[in-house]
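ingest -> validate -> predict -> emit
validate: passed (alphabet ok, no gaps, 115 aa)
predict: started
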Amino acid sequence: MRDLCRAREEALRDLKTAQWRLQALLLRQAIRYTGRATWGPAHLRWLSEVVCPTPAQPSVFPAYVRAVPEHTARLARLEQARTDQGQTWRLRSVVDALQALRGVQCTGAVPAVAA
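emit:
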């Protein structure tokens, strides 16, 4: 279970890095999103419509855009694996007891018990 928690932390860090890279590229080119929430469906649609002003960017920009959904999917797979393993884990009752506390979710309870 600890390995799954570490892999999730790594996947989350990779996702944030991919998002940061993409935002940095857009800001360097003064391309700004005018919508409300970033990284939602509307924002991802907007990213697919962005036109890069320089000739070298069309080779880099799609890779940056593709990285965000790939890391999001990886994170979702790890979350599902952790949930599946948590159902048969011997310390599940402790995790359930922690989740009974206000504000404690699975993402916080499992690493705390695994440590």
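The chain has five helices and no strands.
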